[in-house]
Amino acid sequence: xxxxxxxxxxxxxxxxxxxxxxxxxxxxxxxxxxxxxxxxxxxxxxxxxxxxxxxxxxxxxxxxxxxxxxxxxxxxxxxxxxxxxxxxxxxxxxxxxxxxxxxxxxxxxxxxxxxxxxxxxxxxxxxxxxxxxxxxxxxxxxxxxxxxxxxxxxxxxxxxxxxxxxxxxxxxxxxxxxxxxxxxxxxxxxxxxxxxxxxxxxxxxxxxxxxxxxxxxxxxxxxxxxxxxxxxxxxxxxxxxxxxxxxxxxxxxxxxxxxxxxxxxxxxxxxxxxxxxxxxxxxxxxxxxxxxxxxxxxxxxxxxxxxxxxxxxxxxxxxxxxxxxxxxxxxxxxxxxxxxxxxxxxxxxxxxxxxxxxxxxxxxxxxxxxxxxxxxxxxxxxxxxxxxxxxxxxxxxxxxxxxxxxxxxxxxxxx
Length: 415
What we know:
It holds the Pfam family AlkZ-like. By secondary structure, the protein is of the alpha+beta class. Helices cover about 40% and strands about 15% of the residues. The chain has helices at about 10-20, 30-40, 55-65, 70-75, 95-105, 110-120, 125-135, 160-170, 190, 205-220, 225-230, 245, 270-275, 300-305, 365-385, 400-410, and strands at about 45, 80-85, 90-95, 140, 175-180, 185-190, 250-255, 265, 285-290, 325-330, 335-345, 350-360, 385-390, 395. Strands 9, 10, 11, 12, 13 and 14 form a six-stranded mixed sheet that branches. A three-stranded antiparallel sheet has the order 1-3-2. Strand 7 (about 250-255) and strand 8 form a beta hairpin. It starts with 7 loop residues before the first helix and ends with a helix. Mean pLDDT is about 90; it is low at about 150-155.
């Protein structure tokens, strides 16, 4: 173990650097930057809520700045990334397709996979017929099949063909070839990824070891107990479970002030670790985050590392919400300083902030408020909603200052 401990701020900056959130981009993004961003994170969670940009596009915006969302669709269609069940539905780098397929077949515990296995057992004939149809006629999407029962809703309310398509996707017979207006277009797995026909899947032990490494690499620094959540592995890890990787030099144990146990850093981040210890990682980035951003999707990790108690409330009844439906954490120069409940009214060109809340220990001085206003303005412009309206803030006294800062940001070409 390294003897010199990291401060909590240094650990935070190490994680931000690993996640691509430490510094503001200095140039316009390219499609290659987008692919590298996903490779760095290992997983890009998919969610269909679109009161603002859908989560995968917003996660990328937080790191890349203004970019065309269609680049992600192109990366999928060109085979640079693929879709899989991971901790939830996610995009992942194509190089990892074997790992995910192996884990989904052998070990992953997830409601989507469980329901798919039940459907395989009870509806084999229908599934075979759908596969034969796709084999003969090519890729399909759910919209190609008309429902006749007049119902709708979630998995339990899907028309039969949608359930069968999702079942065949979950079991690996189908893959998502592309998305059409965010709707999945399914094709036979061997046509989407021909390499699958010849490559044997890695065994369970190899998959487990690689996912542990990849989780630590993506997180930058982590406690042992947080590692399993990234790919939703079982069981939760303890420090002795990592002894072999430490002995081989793959992982390094690093003390962090205030942590009950060591932190873990992948050897590929040795340079970042040294910069963190020397205080040479400067956090300059201010941006809005998706609720499903890897930085905050693990509530325990967000609380322990960032002092940010964050619960995603879009699935909570309205009367029980504390902050709002789709609340975006605010990252400012290495700290999570607040959260805002936003909605993009695209037709009207309005980016509505229903409420902005600052954290109890966060004081936004004029410089910080200008940076936050600039981040809001950039996000609104990227949405194509240049008019920003703020309904309320907590504390209430912040409202007038924020509105003025937003007006200043609108006048500044550098905002």
